[in-house]
Fold this protein.
Amino acid sequence: MTAPVQGEAPRHDDALPVRRRRVPRGVGALYAGNARAVLGRALLATRSSTWMVVLSGFFEPVFYLLAMGYGLGTYIGDVEVAPGRTVAYAAYIAPALLAVSAMNGAVYDSTWNVFFKMHFGKLYQAMLATSIGPLDVALGEIGYALLRGAVYGVGFLTVMQVMGLNLSWTALLALPALVLVAFAFASVGMAITSFMSTFQQMDWINLVMLPMFLFSATFYPLSVYPPLLQHVITALPLWHAVELVRGLTTGIPGSSPWGHVAYFAVMIALGITFTTRRLRALFLR
C-alpha cells in the first residue's frame, strides 16, 4: 500500500476496511425470539390504563344470556339440537354466547388495538427498529388477543357452570376449544387490520361481525333458515365456533368436531402468514 501524497485524498485501496452490518435472512429476518416482550408490553398497558375496557367486555354476553335465555326462553321452551335430543333455550344459546365472547375479545384487540398502535402510536416502527422481528410482533399481539379471549371464555364458562348450563363433563374441553377459536380470529383480525388505513375502513369489521353474530345459529337453529342461506352460514367461522363449543357443553355433538378444528387451523396459518408478510412490507423496506 503506497502512502498518499500530502494534500491528496486517500484512494480506496488506502482506506481502512469497514465491517458491514450483517442483515439476517430467511427466518432470522422475521423471528428473533422476542414475542414475549411484545406480549409483556401489552399486559403492562392493560394493567395501567385499559383494564376497565377489558373487564367491560365480559359482561355483554352475560347480559344477553339473562335477557334472551331466561327472558325470551320462557316463551320458546326447549330447542332440538339433534334428532330426538332437546335442551332448554338458555342451555342452547349459552355456548353460542361463550364462543361469541372469545371471538369478541380476540377480534377487538387484534383490530382496533392494533390499528391505533400501527397508525397513531407508531409502536411497530419502534419495535422493528430493535431486535424484534415482524413475526415476533405478530405472535406477541395475537398472543395478547388470544389471552383476552381466553379470559372472557373462562369467566363465562364459570357463569354457565353456576347456572347449571353445562350439561356434560365435556364442557371442560370447551376451554381449549375457546383458545383455538380466539387464536384463529386474532390471527385473521390482525392480518386484515394491517391493510386498513382509515377509520371508515375499520367500520367494515363491525359490518361483518354483526350479521355473523346474528346468523351463525347463535339464537336459532340452522334449520329455520332457507337452504341457500344455510350454506352461507356454515361457511362462517363463528358458526364453526358455535357448533364446536355447543357440542362440548351439551354433550351432543352436531357435526364433526375435527372438521371445525381443521377450519380454525387453516385460519391461524393464513392469518399469521399474511400478518408477518404485511408487517415486513410496511416497516422493513
Remarks:
- The two ends are 39 Å apart (CA to CA).
- Residues 1 and 14 are 7 Å apart (CA to CA).
- The longest strand covers residues 78-82.
